[in-house]
Amino acid sequence: MRLTFTLLLLIFLSISLTGQEAHRRWRKMNQIRNDKFDLILPEVMRENNIDMWIIMNREGRFDPLYPDMGEGYVGSTGYYVFTDRGGDRIERAALGISGYLLKEGGAYDYFGSELELKDYVAERDPQRIGLNYSRSIGGADGLSYSGYLELTEILGETYAARFVSAEKLVSDFRSRRVASEIAVYGEACDLAYQIAEKALSNEVITPGITTLEDVAWWMKEQLFKHNLGSSFGMPSVYVTGVRGILATSTDRIIQRGDVLMIDWGVGLMNMYTDMKRMAYVLQEGETEVPAGIQHAFDEAVKVRDIIKKTIKPGVTARQAEDAVYEALTAAGFNKMKGFNQFTEGDVTDVIIGCHSVGNWGHGVGPSIAFFNPVRLGFEIKPSNLLSIEFFAYTKVPEWGGKKLRVPLEDDAIVTSRGIEWLYPVNPRVLVIK
């Protein structure tokens, strides 16, 4: 009887604690939403000359900004509508979207029916109406073609002629951060790096037995255990050799002498990280990382230090990219012509991809990365989050002079002073015995 009572008590406490954690996360997300609506939204709507922003949602097909807006129940079609009516506050309405969590979040002024949209817009008579469609930014492209046609039909030709893409508005709104948001992101980063570093340890890996996919599945289990998400699917756990990447998250058994890499991120309260870690599996008789591999890592750290010192706010991402490569060249590094297009010389070849990060592993803000050409033209602002990602290729004598690609990546915030880390960044090659 006592055993049964104790078991029931433990179950009750477990449920209570789970509920407390869910409530804690909900409260934090509400704080972020209210802060962003109060502090960021007026600024970015006016910068982009948008009088009304309509975000359309359908049951089973939500806009990418659905979590940012507070979610809610959409019976058929619903809209988040933001109107600049002057003053220091943007009017917020949810039409056709309801529910306890949305209403209790305290972010919206008015809840109504989706059938009110036409009269609601006409009463405010906006001159420029922002809609979420974009050819270059997926996170700003939530409106379907049929949804666009429906809005055109509902609002009529007069207002349809005033539709504009909210692409830049979405980028600015999401990528400019408030303090409550940065606090959550730091929490997510702490979880991400601790899990990654434990994954590359003897707690998880036994050389000659453990496979790459064993490590990846262990990491997936940690996401499940901590109720975390990820924007990258299966964690990338891979082996790098003289011919480049040999295998990624497969049944390939981890062997002594392997150089291991992890590329992954976690999602917590609508904030997503992106980072890498590197490890070496000691050969029998070895006590430390071989000198050539260690030297390649040290060269990459020098690159990271230069990038950190060079990036400043107030310039476009392209201007920042030019400044970084200029500083790297002055320090004796070689700018690569393209990804994996390294030279055979003794110099360390480098290519950078310092992309936006935050509400997805690859965010929608200013991006100092060749693979985000449109966002290279966006201005870097204080509070932007950037993944400081790059690849450095250095010759390794132990590999017969072949080059080892060292990928370093950790997440940072841009402040008025420049780049500042949000957590302990990758300090060393991890060692697996």
Automatic annotation (TrEMBL):
Domain Peptidase M24: 187-415
Annotated coiled-coil segments of the chain: none
Alphabetical list of Pfam families matching this protein: Peptidase_M24
InterPro entries xrefs: Creatinase/aminopeptidase-like, Pept_M24, Peptidase_M24B
Record protein name field: Peptidase M24
Organism: Flavilitoribacter nigricans (strain ATCC 23147 / DSM 23189 / NBRC 102662 / NCIMB 1420 / SS-2) (Lewinella nigricans)
